[in-house]
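Could you help me review a protein record that somebody else here produced? This is what I was given.
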Amino acid sequence: MSDAQNSFTADHYAPRAQAYVDSRDHSQGADLDEMEDCIRGAGLGRALDLGCGGGHVSYRAAPHVGAVVACDVTPAMLDAVARTAAGRGLANVETRRAGAEALPFADAEFDAVLCRFTAHHWADVEAGLREARRVLKPGGLAVFMDAVAPPDRAADTHLQAVELLRDASHVRDYAVSEWLAMLGRAGFAVERVTRRKLRMVFPVWIARTAVPPATAGAIRALQDGASPAVRAHFAISEDGSFDLDTATMVGRAA
């Protein structure tokens, strides 16, 4: 299942690679600032950007580490990251194609594993987290950043539905409680969790994944038909823009 999901995700994102490099939502944010603060001045050697997408973690991490390996399942993403890194003079950014569930790296190869907005695409998230722990040195830094599901069941169901309509490669946005349990089972000791809201501007959000008009209409219908409590949780506006729950989890390899 993991290989099939990875192939599907790669095919889905290949024509959208440059859009994710150019995305303002992905290229900035307080979570990136927090990640950079974690590694600045830490004297780290090799860092893994796991599920690099448009490479924004790699670009921010590169000045603070010896080398960054940007790893993703989508060759077009990796090509775009390599071009962008070269254009920015970041000679210490490498690229490697691989799925999270079977990483082609040695045990304890990395001083840090950095992972942003990708785990919700993995077919087997627990296998991916175990692999992240395997390639991280004991005591190494781990920073996981992702969209998260709200604890309310109705709001959770709404989120997964609109995410899947927008992006067929979506698997699940996990709740913070699920994340903490999975990270603990994988061998990580979480030191802190920072929760944030990220405003998603609807026209930009659907354009980035080239959502067909009929599907965009279905998403809007779900939003319009949502309960007052769900609409309030996501602060859904008249144009469909909404607040996405996110979390940054910082820890160490136990």
The longest helix spans residues 153-166. The first strand starts at residue 44 and ends at 50.
